[in-house]
Fold each of these.
Amino acid sequence: MLKHYFSQFFRNLKRNKLFSLINILGLSAGICTSMLIYLYVDYQTSFDNFHENRENIYRVNQTFIWSDQVDEQFGSTGPGVVFSVAEDLPEVTRGTRLLKLNASLVTYENKLGQKISHMESGVLAADSNFLDIFSFELLHGNPKDLLSDPSNIVITESISKKYFGDHDPLGQVLQFEYAGMNYSHRVAGVLKDVPSNSSLVFDMLTPMNSIPRVKSQNWSWLWTGFVTFVELNPNANIAEVRAKLKDIPRRHAEQTIQSLMNMSYQDYLDEGKKWDIFLQPLSDIHLNTNVLNRISTPVNMNSIYAYGLAAGFIILLSCINFTNLTTTQHIKRAKFAGIKKLLGSSRWQLSLGYMTESFIYCLGSALVGMVLLWYSIPYFSQLTESELTFGHLMNIKVVGLLFGLIAFMSIIAGGYPALFLSAFKPIDAMKGKVKTGKGSAPLRNGLVIIQFTVSVILISSTLIAFDQLSYSYTKDVGFTKDNLGALKNLEWMDETKRESFINELTQIPGINSASICTSVPPDHWSGDQFEPIDATIQTTPIDYTLIDDQYLGTLGIKLLYGRNFSDDFSDDKNNVIISEEAVRDIGWDLDESVLGKKLSYDHGNQVFKVIGVISDFNYRGLRGTVDAFALFTHDSGMFDSGRFNGVFSIDAASSTQLTQILNTIELKWQEFVSDRPFEYLFVDEAFAANFQAEQNFLEVLSIFSSLAILIASLGLLGIIIYAIEQRTKEIGIRKIVGANVWQIAVLLSKQHAKLILASIVLSVPLTWFMMQQWLEDFEYRIDISPFVFLVSGLAILSLTLAISGFHSVKAGFSNPVDAIKDE
């Protein structure tokens, strides 16, 4: 019996080469796509699953107090929060903190005096119990007291090979240089490289107690740089724990607010602000973009849903193709089925034969799909920035999914043909009365509408995503980010050398201006609480940076009122320039009357006079709103990280000239600090990098859209060929009575055009709803234009008419005598 079914399958395969090819291509594309998306979704949802106690670990988040958006959450807290939470919540068994340190120059000098130096940005300070809570595998070293001794450091296996090769790293000393400060750590342990599916990313861990400032600030809630985790008792009721969190800020943040803001916690709330803390499960961190994250970049869950939906669409299109093309061949096989019935075959046996044929199609397509998958995984991994390998398929869960998918597609794609082709009476089949196929026409038309509705949805979604990203890349950010470069690590020069270096940069042909500052957009985190004098509020958060008098001109920031800093004014260290948003937040009138107003800092120990107001600009990129901002001089006494950047404006007519300018800057760098690495970036590229995940999403969506169009077009091609075959005699008779080729082409294309128009109408509300949800993640977003749907619809309609028209014209030129002959 099975041999008979296989023989029948190969006979039909050979007899209907085009239809078989379309079926196999469609089904294999569906299987390949679905497996790719499964691997991607499985990878993204596996983050942090390797930690043994993951179900009881929570990150402590808090209100983002540095923004006037009171409902925003920040994935880090002050250093004192962990102690307050542990003290007030008996459900907390232990807590730990991480602090991301600025990039440092790390040097190892071996016994021969040879030095190996690299800039390292993946350095975290961790509490002594960090490795007890999280399950990072220790390869070498004593697990006791790894992060207790302030002179220790724990490194990953890759870092060990990078500095020590195959030699034993334990006990070796690494020298760190940061912002003019030098310190050393002794290697006490080596961890296996952090898994790629970890939301905690680092290369080195230094003890938290090695940082003097942390020791002195452990009481504070305001230094919000600490990523805080707590481990709860397995029997803890999380709802009750969250309820208890509400009272903790009032009891413990009071000291910080009173000490640093000179107001009570209630006064703080009375100004319309919030200071709440939250618990976020470890498993939720990687898939939640609503919380600002310091250590890693989370993935937008909507993108994962979109990928899954697109994969479902591709599978649906493949199944529809198979169903449609199989049912369109029922006329050719009706007499054969009728003869089998007359010879004694039951309906069940016929159905089983058709289902077996469907299964063989799907099985063969699965083999082709797996070959496609083999070649697709590396490209897709790079595109989605995920570490996917073919080895991930070699487990029982994936194999089960694959066979389940084959069975599902076999039933969906072959079920209807099996029922339809086995249902008619053998006498009707022998007489040719099944030939009209009117009963199946509505189903076929409905399936075509679904196919092209999906295609239009994918095309429209791709165009909307493209428009949004184009808008994000080109939106006015309040300063000139194009042709703006930035040099890092100017703190390796003393103040005199820095100024000389920047002055010499301005002498290089092609450099318009240059400035020294402590932060360059969009990489900015410095901010504090200020007390405006003569205002209705007591305190307000304001972000700030330290600059020189060339900063505004170099970035092209507009000065609305007042003046810039200048060497002509010796007291500018006591002055400040603030943004429009800062004026609005404080409640001052946005006009020249703001000049001369004063901002107090540190309980009045420092008072700054407002000498200028600048236009708002997006100093943190386009992910969030524009918050209040202030500019101070380098000698203002305001706290800074010790980092200095050189920012410069370039006027290069070509890429060759740009390369020459950069080479000249590097040579100038070597003159000043020859033993330090030269690092630069372009601000527009840094802004674009904020949307890299969305750019990847657009590329994947474009691929899926193209694949959907290809599958739908192949299916339409098969249906059109079938329709023409069924109307061959009609076409011949029409030609004999005077119809021309154009009339025949219109006759045959009209029905398909109606189906496409119905698809377009259906796709518009569905696309608008789905993409509106996706756009919600953008602070600055476009309005969906009707033009998008017009372009998508015309593209699909034109493609349909081209396919239909070509074959209709071909049929129109056929000899009518051949068409009306008896079979």
Note: The mean pLDDT is 85.
Amino acid sequence: MVTVAASDRGRVIWVPVRHHSPAAARAVRALVERHRPEAVLIEGPSEFTAFDQLALDHRLPIAIMTWLRYVADGRERQSHALYPLTVFSAEWQALVAAREFGARAAFIDLPWADQFAVTVALAADDAAPRPGEEEAAPSLPQIEPGPGFFETLALRVGREDSSAVWDEFFEIDPDLDPDTYLVRAATLGEGVRLSAAHADEPETRAREAFMARRIAETLADTAGPVLVVTGAFHTAGLQALLAGRTAPSPVPAPIALPGLVVGTALVPTSYETLDAHRGYLAGQPSPGFYHRVFEATPTREASTVSDLFTEAIAALRARRVAVSPADAIAAMTTAKALAQMRGHARLWRDDLVDGITGAVVKDDLDEDHPLLRVVLTSLRGDRIGRLAEGADVPPLVQEVRRRWADQDLPFSRTVSPLTLTLDRAADRATSRLLHGLRVVGVPAATPPAAPTGPLTARARIDGSERWAVVWNQDVETALIHASRWGGSLEQAVTAVLEHRARLGTATTLAGVLTDAVRAGLEDVSGRLGAALRDVLASSDDLGELGVVLESLVRLVHFDTWLGAVGRSDLAHLTRFAHERTTSVLERLAPMAEGPHIPAAVAALRTLAETTATLASALDLDVDAVAGALGRQTERPPGSPGHDAEFEGALIAAGWLLSGDPGAALEARMSDPAQTGRFYSGLLAVAGHLAIAAPQIFTAADDALRFWDDDAFLAALPDLRRAMHALSSRERASLLAHLTGDDAAPAPLVVDDTALVVLSRREARVWDAVATWTGTQP
């Protein structure tokens, strides 16, 4: 336990704050100016020590991002936290005032990596009981810090959310002085602490124990005043720890995280991001409004809300949205009446919103009324942060800037079209850079049609890519955020794809694989490959495995532009996927009719085609596939069978490997209702062989001659679906076999006049398409 002598504790100026509060920010600055402390200690990430970077000319809001990466179960994991800073943040004003008056500043919160490690260590003990809550006294004068304090306080002031309660006691009072602020903030913070279930949580104890040690170390190292700025929730706990008044529960120790890498960075943010309720004493709704409140001069404070309302009316009229003078007067009159009824010393944001809702919006309470929407947008604010020129940025940002310049891409905030030809080495390098940025979520380049689907053996890829590229503040911000995934673009892409693979299903792997190749990863045999194999090994879904196998075959054997053909890492992965698909097929339970059948049929085609095409090149086990197919088609008499469509696909897959469909066809014709489904599966897998062996339809033709009308009508829909899968040449071969007429059909002859008419008609159709869709053929 950390205990500090009373004389040293007397040197501490405690400043409990709400993290984004104009009143708290003003109080902090005033108290630093009054006491001229030797040190200013701030609740913030203690691992961040680059205070020279915070002194640069940034445009707020910005945030301190602290992140970690570590390895668990062979998988790289990451976590990060953001500490936003605005001009009306108490923490920011503490930093500014410390520099101005020569105090040394430091952050004192437990490093994020340690906080995370404590959480990991406690993960198995989530069921620990929490303190209960009791009813509190109903009378405001009798309210004392204790259980239910905040709930009672909120009830007494008639406000439901924590931001509004804080405003009632701190922001609305224009005459609030620092001393009164301290009394109210300490009382409110202690009351909330005693009524909160998480006051004695292990994570809270660990953080407060660390902060107490940092305060004690600073007191031992200084002789003058020390000003401590923390969330009001923590102030009372820290005071008790330093005075030795508590016998706290054991502080949990963080566990060691294997392969731990940590880092910090400054990152721009925006008021739109901050405009959210994030729990008591943290976060801030309507940041644009509080920015106005903080920067308002004493003579303009009372008119902040009125000015905002006037601007909203003017903005609507500029957009030609009618707002009648009567509605405007009614809204403002109602707002002022609400402020008076609530005892507000000045008109406040809630008064305005409620006034507009009650007087103008009325029954339309979904925030869609144009006046309310504009006012809420103004309250939120549109301010976007920006880092100062020359500010330190993570290595990933520097790498991408350099590669962007090397590829002669424009550093322009205006979107520019870019066409790449993938048979050129330079364009392939650019394509890989742009795909890598797309994978890690950096909006620097957007293809008109994002490549969301997997590459398949029958997918068509031309040799060009058309992108829209841009370099703006959003790109820089996203790059800084992406740096938590890795120190280079290759590391970040690998980590993101591994994360996607681990969280997804086998189907997800198809997209992961194609993104890995598109982004230029030269080898997926490391942790990403392990993740892919783990997910494949855990999947028993034949359809999902078929999708992955088809994507791998497309890459390793049929690819033309992406440079994947012949890669040994992809070949090993293809062999693994082939073995897994074969294993699942071998022990497959009877497949009933259902929506899963088409995917399973497609998987059988992929498995059979891959085995027939790449057995030698990839050393695939042909006998294992043939054996699995045989076991599924040769079930014991009386045992449950597969759906007819899947049964047809099994026979077709065996046919692709052996070249002989066998005598199994006749046995499937006994049930007319299933004949069409059987042929649908058969032709979906081996329809292209119908030209060489049209006799496969003889059994159906013979059976059809003995069906009555009801049986024929029952079979017809599925027969039509089966025949629809055939090409025109395959249909001609079938017709010739069934009719005995081998003569080729007569060629179509069209005279010149008809061709001109058809050409003009087609041109008109394409003109209409361009008009209605905005695209050119």
Note: The CA atoms of residues 283 and 412 lie 33 Å apart.
